[in-house]
Amino acid sequence: MVMAEIIILACVVFLSRYLFLAPGIPLKPGAGLQRFLSYSGPAVLSVIWAPIVFMPAQKLWINWHNPYLWGALLAGMIAWKTKNVLFTTVSSMAVFLVLHLWVLPDVNFHLPG
Questions:
Q1: Quick check: pTM over 0.90?
Q2: In sequence order, what are the residues at sequence separation of 6 or more whose Cβ sits closer than 8 angstroms to the Cβ of residue 110?
């Protein structure tokens, strides 16, 4: 049963992508649908990073000892200023590493508070 569900969902995903990307099919989404779909990328990324930053141990952790929060704030500022994805990723990871190893070495990352 699970394998059938996986195959069906794979077909649904493939067909939904293929209908919009195949050059021979004259199906083009309207301006309203394109505008609606433009919000899906930021929404999915927010769902991915927010729990990592604010709840690294399945518990809300918002204070200045949270290196995830510092890394996310820095990444947001760098992305806003430079608009360079690679530089933002590498620099925010470096800041997180520095915070983790030298600035806040005594903070247990799995048990906040």
A1: no
A2: 56, 57
